[in-house]
Amino acid sequence: MATEAKRRRVVGAVGGEDPDPVAGFLSWCRRVGVELSPKVAVSRQGTVAGYGMVALESVQCGELLFAVPRDALLSQYTCSISGLLEREQGALQSQSGWVPLLLALLHELQAPASLWSPYFALWPELGRLEHPMFWPEVERRRLLQGTGVPEAVEKDLTNIRVEYHSIVLPFMEAHPDLFSPHVRSLELYHQLVALVMAYSFQEPLEEEDDEKEPNSPLMVPAADILNHFSNHNAHLEYSQDCLRMVATQPITKGQEIFNTYGQMANWQLIHMYGFAEPYPDNTDDTADIQMVTVREAALQGAKVEAERLLLHERWDFLCKLEMVGEEGAFVIGRKEVITEEELATTLKVLCMPAEEFREFKDHSEWQAVNGEEHSLTITNIPKLKASWKQLLRDSVLLTLQTYATDLKTEQELLDNEEVYVKLSRREQQALQVRYGQKMILHHLLELTS
Length: 449
Fold this sequence. Notes:
This protein is of the alpha+beta class.
C-alpha cells in the first residue's frame, strides 16, 4: 500500500536498523503461522512503489497467495494491552472509531518485546508519508483546489487534534507505565492516523448485521504489502480462523500482485493513500458537483424575487426528502451517475413548472423520479428535457470555475513528457486527480450541449 520506496524501523523499536527487513519479516511469518505460497515473493524490485509482492511462477485464478492466522493480526483485541482497552472502551469512543487501534499501535511501537516488531520494520518511514495532510496548506490548496481534497483534509486535521487532546493523550497520561513520553506526541499520532488510513483493513459486516456499527480497523501483516490497482488481480477473503489473499485472475511470472482498496476515485486515493492512478487507468474515478452548486446555478436563472423565493422553497422540499444537503455532492463516474436518484429528483423539482411543483409537493405520497425520459444514465443525458440539461450544464460550468487551471493547461502538461517528468511527485499526483475529474466534467458538457 505504501507509495514510498524507503522503509525503516519505526520509532520505539529496538536493535537499530534491520539490514534485511524482508528476511526478518519472512522469518517472523513462519513463526506466527503466516502461510506464504512458494509462487510469490515480497520484493522492492518490479513493483510500482515501495515494497510489493510479485509472482515467482505463474498463478492460476483462485490460487491461495498467502493466509494470515487471526492471532497474527494486530488489533485492539490481539495487542498486549487488549484487556485494558476493553475495560476502558467506554472512555475511548470517538467519531472515527479508530482510537483503540491507534493506542494499541502507540504501545506496541515502543514495547521492546512486541510480537510485531519484524512487521513494523516493513512499514514506511512515518516522517515521509505522502498524504496531503502532511503537505503545507499553501501547497495543498494550490495543487488540489477544486478537487475536494483540501476540505476533506481540514476536517481530518480538526478531528485528529480534538481526538488526541480529549481522548488519547489523557489515556496515555493515565497509564505512564504503558506509554513512554516519546510516543505522547500529536505529530506521531497524525502519522499513525495516516498509516491506519492507508494500511488497515476493515472486516465487512455479515448481511444480517447491516444495522450494526462498522467493524474496528485492524492491521493485516503481508496483506498490507500489496499495492493497489483498480484492475486488481487478488482479493482478501475473511474466514473464522484466518484471512486469505486469493488470485482473482491468472498472474504471470514476474507480474506484480495487486489488491484493491475498494472502488475509489483518484481524489480518495490521494487523500487516504497519498497517490493517484494515472489517467485513464482508474476506471472508478469520479467528479463531484456540490449540491449547493446546482442551487446556485438554478438561482442564476431566477429573474425576480418571487422566482428566487420559490426556488428556495423547492430546495427546502428537496432537503426534507433527504435528496440534497448543504455539504452533499452529486457524484458522476466515468460510465455512470453514482447518485442517479438524487440528481434526477433535484433536476426535476428545480425545473418543473410552479403549478406542477405545488401539486407535486402537496401529494400525500411522494413518488421517486422514474421513466426513461428522466433516466440519468450517462448515455441518456442527451435525451433529458432541455431545462434539465441546461441546469446540469450550468452546474458543471460553475464547478469547473472552482479549479485554478483549465483542462487545456492540464492536457498540455500531460502531453509534454519533458515538462511532466520535471514536476515534483506531488505535482504529478495532483495533476492526475484534477485531470481525471475535469475529463468527466467536460464529457458532461458535451452530453448537455
